[in-house]
Amino acid sequence: MITVYHNPRCSKSREALALVEGSSAVGGSDLQIIEYLKTPPKLAELKRLHTLLDVPVREMIRSNEAEYAALGLADTALTDDALLAAVAEHPKLLQRPIVVNGDKAVIARPPELASSVL
């Protein structure tokens, strides 16, 4: 099962999704598309993504969003759990797209990075 955390309004997310859909790794029912703004991931799911991505939590967060500044997320004293809790409450902060394939995941920016987990 390949899962794409997707925002259809984002051109990079659309490009990554098209790359995944065109991949030989995807069969008809093997692709799950999660529009994370409509179906926000819970904290436990974000923690699992963090583990799979194996990147600092801050790389999962869109620091250019207004919510980032409004919530004071630039504060380096904030723990990973606090940052992920903020993303759970404000899913717009989640970096996108994220492509997950089994125990591998990548933030597909640029979209071509999606192929690294297919």
UniProtKB/TrEMBL annotation:
Stored NCBIfam families: arsC
SUPFAM superfamilies per the UniProt record, alphabetical: Thioredoxin-like
UniProt KW keywords: Oxidoreductase
Species classification: Bacteria, Pseudomonadati, Pseudomonadota, Betaproteobacteria, Burkholderiales
Record-level Gene Ontology MF annotations: arsenate reductase (glutaredoxin) activity
Keyword S-adenosyl-L-methionine: no
PANTHER family, A to Z: ARSENATE REDUCTASE
InterPro entries: Arsenate_reductase, Arsenate_reductase-like, Thioredoxin-like_sf
Record bears the keyword Transport: no
E.C. code: 1.20.4.1
The family this protein is said to belong to: Belongs to the ArsC family.
Organism annotation: Pandoraea bronchicola
Name the UniProt record assigns to this protein: Arsenate reductase
Pfam families: ArsC
Reactions accelerated catalytically: [glutaredoxin]-dithiol + arsenate + glutathione + H(+) = glutathionyl-S-S-[glutaredoxin] + arsenite + H2O
Uppermost EC category: oxidoreductase
